[in-house]
């Protein structure tokens, strides 16, 4: 590898490389060597920017959760427009088209990463808890607008939607389900709209 070459946005370059390795080969293949090779940089580059590999992975997960936050803004803005079923189907499909399932697997198989994340993410699994919160917030807005029944427990419904959609994606392996499969889940879970 060339030395003395300035790397622009090295953290983002490493995070993008980690995501590609994770999606292509799974969490067990995610090593510092695999990430730096994928990024096309010397191994020392990663260790100059992060205390250790678990610190890198923790920041990678939090970065991807941050990206998800930006994506859920669209769901929040959709409250009151379109249909609740269409809005949720689109949001859930987009969420799980990302690296979400792979990141959940990564967090659950790496004890050091899980422990590291506990310092900044005290409860639940990043991605899953953030997704539940975003969907619950959206459902709460729709309930306030009268587009779903006032009696709907939005936290429970959000957990059902995220959990069921997650299971659909996990069980499909490399072939993700189509949006229609997600739509069927939403139709079954969301109470009939007024």
Task: Offer a concise description of the structure.
This protein is mainly alpha-helical and 194 residues long. The chain is built from 10 helices and no strands.
How would you characterize this protein structure?
- This protein is an all-alpha fold and 194 residues long.
- The chain has two domains: 43 residues, Orthogonal Bundle (Arc Repressor Mutant, subunit A), CATH 1.10.10.60; 129 residues, Tetracycline Repressor, domain 2 (Orthogonal Bundle), CATH 1.10.357.
- Helix content is 69%, strand content 0%.
- It is built from ten helices and no strands.
- Helix 1 crosses helix 2 and helix 8 crosses helix 9.
- The longest helix has 25 residues.
- It is elongated.
- The N terminus is likely disordered.
- Keywords: DNA-binding, Transcription, Transcription regulation.
- GO terms for molecular function: DNA-binding transcription factor activity; transcription cis-regulatory region binding.
- It comes from Virgisporangium aliadipatigenens.
Please supply descriptive tags for the structure shown above.
194 residues; Arc Repressor Mutant, subunit A; single chain; Tetracycline Repressor, domain 2; mainly alpha
Shape: elongated
Series of H and E elements: HHHHHHHHHH
| CATH topological fold name of the largest domain | Tetracycline Repressor, domain 2
Low-confidence stretches: 1-5
Could you name the CATH class of the largest domain? Mainly Alpha
Total individual domains: 2
Helix content: 55-70%
* Multimerization state: single chain
Pfam families: TetR_N
Protein name: TetR family transcriptional regulator
InterPro entries: Homeodomain-like_sf (IPR009057), HTH-type_TetR-like_transc_reg (IPR050109), HTH_TetR (IPR001647), Tet_transcr_reg_TetR-rel_C_sf (IPR036271)
DNA-binding region: 31-50
């Amino acid at each position: 590898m060339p030395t003395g070459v300035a790397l622009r946005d090295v953290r983002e370059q490493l995070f993008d490389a980690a995501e590609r390795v994770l999606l292509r080969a799974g969490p067990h293949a995610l090593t510092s060597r695999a990430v730096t090779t994928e990024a096309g940089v010397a191994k020392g580059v990663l260790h100059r920017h992060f205390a250790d590999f678990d610190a890198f992975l923790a920041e990678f997960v939090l970065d991807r959760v941050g990206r998800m936050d930006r994506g859920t803004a669209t769901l929040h803005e959709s409250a009151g427009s379109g249909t609740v079923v269409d809005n949720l189907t689109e949001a859930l499909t987009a969420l799980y088209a990302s690296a979400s399932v792979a990141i959940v697997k990564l967090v659950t198989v790496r004890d050091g990463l899980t422990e590291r994340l506990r310092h900044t993410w005290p409860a639940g699994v990043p991605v899953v808890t953030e997704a539940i919160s975003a969907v619950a917030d959206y459902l709460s807005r729709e309930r306030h607008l009268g587009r779903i029944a006032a009696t709907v427990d939005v936290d429970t419904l959000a957990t059902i939607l995220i959990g069921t959609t997650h299971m659909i994606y996990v069980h499909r392996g490399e072939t993700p389900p189509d949006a229609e499969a997600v739509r069927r889940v939403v139709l079954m879970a969301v109470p009939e709209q007024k």
